[in-house]
């Protein structure tokens, strides 16, 4: 349920009521104090601009900050609302493939280590130890060994 505060404008030339709707962003849970008479807050950029997602959710469930919604649906990979199952029409997810590639290249360059001067390790040996199947087998053997030792433990008098 929304908390509505109604206040009469003090200026006599303005006889309208200002309605202040207090909502919380459904993603970050920070409050979105929207002044219905002036809801385009461009001084703070579009990051904290409140939007309606455009899905089938109503009232507080449909409200989010523009930046939060874009980031959430970008990470999620699609624009399907997890609550109502419909597509969020008012959210634009920018494809940042080039930005991600640049970020990955920057991280790779920052963590780049000079190549070893000795002989290169064989690819088969390196692949064997990094294989997921091999690691799962080793883990299974360890679990089996602990279970068997637990089943056949003997109480030795001390």
Keywords:
transmembrane helix; 4 helices; zinc-finger; Znf_RING/FYVE/PHD; elongated; alpha+beta; zinc ion binding; 158 residues; 34% helix; 16% strand; transmembrane; Herpes Virus-1
Task: Describe this entry's structure for a reader.
With 158 residues, the chain is an alpha+beta fold. The protein is 34% helix and 16% strand. The chain has helices at 66-76, 97-110, 123-130, 132-151; strands at 3-8, 17-24, 31-35, 50-52, 63-65. A three-stranded antiparallel β-sheet has the order 1-2-3, with no helix packed on it. Strand 1 (3-8) and strand 2 form a beta hairpin. It holds the Pfam family RINGv.
Output the strand order for the largest sheet: 1-2-3
Q: Give the rounded overall mean pLDDT.
A: 70
Largest sheet: 3 strands, antiparallel
Alpha-carbon distance between the two ends: 67 Å
Which percent range describes the beta-strand content?
A: 15-25%
Q: Report the principal-axis shape.
A: elongated
List how many beta strands DSSP finds: 5
Keywords: Membrane, Metal-binding, Transmembrane, Transmembrane helix, Zinc, Zinc-finger
Protein name: RING-CH-type domain-containing protein
GO molecular function: zinc ion binding
Domain RING-CH-type: 17-91
What is the strand and helix layout of this fold?
Layout: E1 3-8, E2 17-24, E3 31-35, E4 50-52, E5 63-65, H1 66-76, H2 97-110, H3 123-130, H4 132-151
Antiparallel strand pairs: 1-2, 2-3, 4-5
Give a nutshell description of this structure:
By secondary structure, the chain is α+β, with helices and mostly antiparallel strands.
